Structures are given as C-alpha cells and as structure tokens.
Amino acid sequence: MPEQPRPLFQSADMDRQPKILTQVARLVDAGIMVSTATKDLGPVNAANLREAHSIMESGTAIGKITLTGF
Q: Which residue positions in the chain have pLDDT lower than 70?
C-alpha cells in the first residue's frame, strides 16, 4: 500500500519523514521512480531566474525546471 501524505508540522510520526525520503531516493537511484525534473539551469542567479520564469511564461515547459546552489 502506498504511503499516505504526512503533515509538515508537529505530527506524532515526524520521525517517519526521513525514512520516507530515503526510500524515495533509493527508488529514484534504482530507476524505479522517475523525477519530473527535465531542465537544470544551474546556479541561482538573476539571469537563470529570468530564464526559468521566461520558460514558464511561454507555456512550453514540460516537467520541472530546477536551479542549484542554495
């Protein structure tokens, strides 16, 4: 049975969150689960933020656009 969504704050089972995320990471690494991220624009900066926004506004984006370097 799939895991149920978990509350973000003050739940009695908050210790389950890291276990769930670890399992998701294993499934992604094994190729069983696939990320919807399709484009990584690189580090967070003004130019990359403008490009990401432009792609989203164009209506042609498929999947998720990511920025790195937080």
A: 1-8, 70
